Amino acid sequence: MKRLTIGILAHVDSGKTTLCEALLYTTGATRKLGRVDHGDAYLDTDAQERERGITIWSKEARLTAGDCELTLLDTPGHVDFSPEAERVLQVLDCAILVINGAEGVQSHTLTLWRLLEKHDVPVFLYINKMDLSGYTKEELMAQLRRHLSEACIDFTPGRDPEERLEDIISSDELLMHFAFSEHGFAEKDIPRAVMGRHCFPCLFGSALRMQGVEELVDAIRTYGEEPEYPAEFAAKVYKVSTDSRGERVTHMKITGGVLNRKDMVMKLRDGETLWSEKVNELRLLSGTKSLPCATAEAGTIVAATGLTQAQAGDGLGAEPDSPACLLEPVLIYRICFPEGTNLHEAARSFRTLSEEEPMLRIHWIEQTRELLCELMGEVQIEVLTRRVKERFGYDITFLPVSIAYRETIAAPVEGVGHYEPLRHYAEVHVLLEPLPAGRGMEFRSALSEDVLDRNWQRLILTHFREKKHLGVLTGSPLTDVRITLIAGKAHLKHTEGGDFRQATYRAIRQGLMQAQSVLLEPWYSFRLTVPQEQIGRALNDLTMMKATFSAPEIIGDTAFITGTAAVRHIRNYQKDLIAYTHGKGMLSTAPSGYRPSGDQDEIVAAIGYDPEADLANTPDSVFCDHGAGFNVKWNEVPQYMHLDSGWRKDGYRPMAQEAAPRPQPKKALSPLEEDAALIKIFEQTYGPIKRNPLIALRSQKRREETVFADAAPKTEYLLVDGYNILFAWEELKKTAETNIDAARAKLADILSNYQGYTGCRLILVFDAYRVKGNAGTVEQYHNICIVYTKEAETADAFIERATYTLAKERRVRVATSDGPEQMIILGNGAERVPAKQFKEEVLAVEKSILSMLGGKKATFSLGALSELVQAQSPAE
After folding, report:
1. Which residues does residue 394 pair with via DSSP β-bridges, in sequence order?
2. Alpha helices in 642-772 (DSSP H)
3. pLDDT tens across 771-821, in order?
4. For residues 216 and 130, what is the distance between their CA atoms, to the nearest angstrom?
5. What is the DSSP string of 4-48?
6. 167 CB contacts (<8 Å, ≥6 apart)?
7. Rounded to 5°, angle at Cα 248 from 243 and 253
8. How far apart are CA 492 and CA 34, in angstroms?
9. What DSSP string runs through 392-432?
């Protein structure tokens, strides 16, 4: 059978859901004709949908018409939920666009048409409510051709086929050229013209009265064609939801091959596997029904469980990701919770919702401890408030904050980021280029792998994508910009993954500081209906709003004005309209994208964003000199940078850079030489050390003689920076990657053995500063002391304070490889033990203990003693 996926789209109150019910009833999929006003529509399954009489979430229905197996996707018609409708478009074979015959082409109709054009979806138009007084068929056809396309063709049954064929050919230049070629154009070629968007069939009727519905089904059967699918598995995710059991459900269309239950599904990018997960169940949904299936073939809409990482818009297998959505939220609100609410837990709940509704963009502002979200309008707020209460139990309110602005740039610019504190190194050069409106963000590399290794380049591209980059005018998200990697440098010894993250973020930010930034603000397309006597007032108001609009269209005593206006001007106009028209006026709006603001300076000044004070998005770089890192302001970075990318404003030559000679690794310093270097750095930074720092440079015997000069020996203390050691020792690091608790326990056991042999007072310190409300704990574990720092206190801070107190009268050693911490330790008069040296000490102690126990001299791994002890019986 021919398998087609069809979406139904419309401006709100055009009779879209009523048409769905009529299609289901006509094809025998349902035995009862449901109605929206009766609250029993087959696809309005949610309580809020039934109460409000509108569609809020997209739904599937399955029906059979002759030799066609159709999957019907009903989409929301209200503008506040239009992003939900846009996500459905990416999986459609064709669409039915419902027009309200009594109102004609409305503002949101134009938005939907633009979306259908963007996603290249073939369209059948059904002009509904023709039983009501309004426009004639001829007037409606004229509107459709004027506002939508000249290729809108009347396909009313009974019309002369030759006349219709002539209209089709004359409406499209390509078809006209084809018709006059040797191939010609005949009735059999109409399906290809329809599926190629060269012809848009228009049918008229009344869904409520079942008029024109069978004709619409016949048109879809006759002119709809199933796409050809590749043999390789591919799928497109268009929706994520949660079922009644709390399971995460991924809705997708199979666009290639087959998908079986228990198959492994992969998400690929640039040939790399980002993740791979197993499908637990496959379901075929239709209204409230859910049928399990074992296999889903190409062209099938299916719901899968078990995929925890898939997001709406993702391409799976060989399918690429969808482009950025055209419709975006335009308003920012602050979410207000009842007093005593755990905000972090609430934020996690909202992030779960944002997976199901990607346009519900959640932002946690740590400095002010606020949760912000981007929304479309008031109806969405009302629906979301009730949904959060029913699902998570929060009584929330929304307070408007601002318009959701965006930023872009007007001309190409190079950005440089350098990150080189002591023993770290990365430099990144990026080219920022403006893109046409609506393209979103694009990322690529133009750098040879001979200059920078592939693994570093892939890491930088990951950092491009992982963050929402902010502009420097208002701190709004960046859009319509291509970011290209044009130069980069790593150090053979000192570069780590996090170094390139810092360098990448700083490079993008430094480029934006130099760029000619442009503030973009959201616009609405609108349709304004006013009594004829109020035309003057309406036109004056629109002129004051700096709106663009067409000449009023007057029908009887009513005037219709269509146009576009900035959201900040027209968003609250409905109240004024109702007041001066005494309730007779009506305003309908729909998102119309972003445009450069005409009042950029005033808006920027009002918001008062300072990009240099935004420390989380700093444009400055860090360079190193004489062993110490220092900050360089963004405008001075080009004077310090280590590379020349070859790019100039007068020409784009990113490949001009020659491969820089790789730095030769420096000769490793001995611990004594490192101590001497650290003392020098400390004194340059903090001034001379008043205690005797040379203790750390003397031999072990001399140190003991100096520290324990009096007759009574004093206790030696050893402080261990837990996480620093844990991730510096490879054996423990591997354990920590899978189970951090097990790694901590293993380290504690190793240190217990070490303390038992050496007799020192050993204190193991772990960071717990991010644990909210934590007052800090001290535990006695066997013969050592374990400290978990309190909230807002790091292990470094605890160790620095402890060394200052203890080192006055005792010998204190600190095991750590943290460079800044080592400087403070030496300044306090304590001795430092690098992680590598400490590991050698621990291994030597364990060898001695094992030798004493069993005379074993064979090689062994770190922690072998603990494992041996645990294997003994209690008696042993």
Report:
1. none
2. 671-686, 700-707, 722-728, 730-738, 740-758
3. 656 667 888 888 899 988 877 677 777 887 887 777 766 788 888 877 655
4. 15
5. EEEEEEESTTSSHHHHHHHHHHHTTS-SS---TTTT--SS--SHH
6. 153, 154
7. 95
8. 70
9. H----EEEEEEE--EEEESS-EEEEEEE-STT--EEEEEEE
φ, ψ of residue 401 in degrees (nearest 5): -110, -55
Token pair listed for 423: 């023993």
Q: Provide the 8-state DSSP code for 582.
A: T
Instruction: Tell me: pLDDT of 710 over 80.
Output: no
- Distance separating alpha carbons of residues 64 and 69, to the nearest angstrom: 5
What are 376-413's pLDDT values in tens digits? 888 888 888 998 888 888 898 888 878 889 999 999 99
Q: For residue 204, report the phi and psi dihedrals to the nearest 5 degrees.
A: -120, 150
Q: Which amino acid is at 741?
A: D
Contact 7, 95 (CB under 8 A): yes
Determine the residue type at 607.
I
Is residue 69 within 8 A of residue 93, CB to CB? The reply is no
SS (H, E, C) 849-863: HHHHHHCCCCCCCCC
Q: Quote the CA–CA distance of 567 and 764 in Å, as a whole number.
A: 58
Q: Is the pLDDT of residue 461 over 50?
A: yes
| Mean pLDDT, residues 102-127 | 90
**What is the reported pLDDT for 347?**
83
Instruction: Say how far apart CA 94 and CA 575 lie, in whole Å.
Output: 39
Q: Kindly report whether the global pTM for this prediction surpasses the value 0.70.
A: no
| Cβ neighbourhood burial of 790 (10 Å; 0-12, 13-18, 19+) | middle
Q: Closest Cα partner for 150 from 166, 124, 168?
A: 168
The per-residue DSSP string of 478-496 comes to B-SEEEEEEEEEE-TTT--
**pLDDT, tens only, 23-75:** 999 998 888 887 777 777 888 778 887 788 788 888 899 999 888 999 999 98
